[in-house]
Write a structure and sequence with these properties.
InterPro entries: Beta-ketoacyl_synthase, Ketoacyl_synth_C, Ketoacyl_synth_N, PKS_Beta-ketoAc_synthase_dom, Thiolase-like. The chain is α/β, with parallel strands linked by helices. The chain has a single domain, classed as Peroxisomal Thiolase, Chain A, domain 1, CATH 3.40.47. It has 13 helices and 15 strands. Strands 1, 2, 5, 6, 7, 8, 9, 10, 11, 14 and 15 form an 11-stranded mixed sheet that branches. α3 crosses α4.
């Protein structure tokens, strides 16, 4: 079977997920439909004197002192194991395709720098650099491609692993790259994932200095409020999700269960500002329209939109503008998983793709919780507070990243 452009259909045969709500797809999905929040006070490091002291942390077993790259690798391995087991593909340690890994940028974190400064008795960069000489452990931990190399070796993926970061669109970019590799005939199967473990003091302070974070520390579960009148920033979170992608015909031939299709992907860059979208919305609108065109669909074919929905005043306004530009007054329901799991940054696009597939499978729209007071300027149906039954055939999943890196995916049910 081929799509409208003559390309192989891209099937999803396995999924895995980890968020602040729990470990595994089933646990996450049941809690998401129940409208539960995974946001809590940070205990990983001191938050005295910080404006924001909450996050959606993933507390890994034995995880005290883990650096961000180590957390990314641990979570990525968990979701890859779950997705590969569900897909029942390949022998253990011998996955029959490439790895596309979406993860955050990597830099040496404060605890390591402080330790180097203490050892050198010199807080200057020159002193720390000298102290770091011949420290292979530091080099290997913070080498950006190292995480992908170790995962590829562990799971036996084919070829050189591809590691990519496109800000908050990273997880969706990894899926797009995997789907396109299958469409070009470069492989019959691959695994695409996004993972982020960036809740550490330095990153929290940086986002806080951008006035991007919610400061509603008194009630963490109420802090993430996408599309709501009193929204005032996103909640930084962690998580990971993986999808096994296959050529549809190959998957059917081996008797795999088809969870859905990656029917289309659209991207559009916006170099307007480091954090803000261009007020004309052309990149957001263009990414959504490109995804629909790639899938061979019209706006009316979309049953539901999984929002980027961060809860910042700027993002929610621009996403609403984009929805109206693409769908007009007859926009489908849209809801934000980030109201419950926070903004998982590099993992968000992959997690939201997983939840979009489950929405199709179960015919249940996850809610946007904490929607206490509607914003009169946002007239979309945001599925407020309570999950809803609905017949869903095609889902548009939006991922709009800092720096204008925008990727939208169309996830669809299996062909009749």
């Amino acid at each position: 079977m081929r799509d409208h452009l003559g390309r192989p259909l891209v099937a999803v045969t396995g999924i895995g997920a980890v968020t602040s709500l729990g470990f595994g797809v089933a646990d996450n999905w049941s809690r998401l439909l129940a409208g539960q929040s995974g946001i809590r006070r940070i205990t990983r490091f001191p938050t005295d004197h910080l404006k924001t002291a909450i996050a959606g942390t993933v507390d890994l077993p034995g995880g005290e002192g883990f650096t961000s790259p180590v957390r990314v690798e641990r979570m990525a391995a968990m979701v890859m194991e779950e997705a590969i087991a569900e897909a029942a593909i390949g022998a253990a340690g011998n996955f029959p395709g490439p790895l596309f890994l979406g993860m955050p940028p990597v830099e040496i974190e404060w605890p390591v720098r402080f330790d180097l400064a203490r050892r050198a008795h010199d807080p200057s960069y020159a002193g720390m650099t000298k102290q770091a000489e011949r420290r292979a452990d530091i080099y290997e931990t913070y080498l950006y491609g190292g995480v992908g190399e170790r995962l590829a070796a562990r799971f036996g993926t084919r070829g050189a692993p591809i590691s990519v970061t496109t800000a908050c669109a990273t997880g969706a970019t990894a899926i797009q790259l995997g789907a396109e590799a299958i469409q070009r005939g470069e492989c019959d199967a691959c695994i695409a994932l996004g993972a982020d473990g960036s809740v550490h003091a330095e990153s929290l302070i940086r986002f806080s200095l951008l006035s991007a974070l919610s400061t509603r520390d008194d009630d963490p579960t109420k802090a993430s409020r996408p599309f709501e009148k009193n929204r005032a920033g996103f909640v930084m979170s962690e998580g990971a999700a993986a999808l096994v992608l296959e050529n549809y015909e190959t998957a059917r031939a081996r008797g795999a269960t088809i969870l859905g299709l990656v029917a289309g992907a659209g991207e559009r860059a916006d170099n307007f500002h480091r954090t803000r979208s261009n007020p004309d919305g052309r990149a957001i609108v263009g990414a959504m329209r490109n995804a629909l065109a790639d899938a061979g669909l019209e706006p009316a074919d979309i049953s539901y939109v999984n929002a980027h929905g961060t809860g910042t005043p700027e993002n929610d306004k621009m996403e609403t503008f984009g929805m109206r530009a693409v769908f007009g007054e007859d926009a489908p329901p849209i809801s934000s998983n980030k109201s419950m799991i926070g903004h998982t940054l590099s993992a968000a696009g992959a997690l939201e793709a997983v939840f979009s597939l489950l929405t199709i499978r179960d015919g249940r729209l996850p809610p946007t919780i904490n929607h206490d007071e509607p914003d009169p300027s946002i007239t979309l149906d945001v599925v407020p507070n309570v999950a809803r039954d609905a017949a869903v055939r095609h889902v548009l999943s939006n991922s709009f990243g800092f720096g204008g890196q925008n990727v939208c995916l169309v996830l669809s049910g299996e062909p009749a």
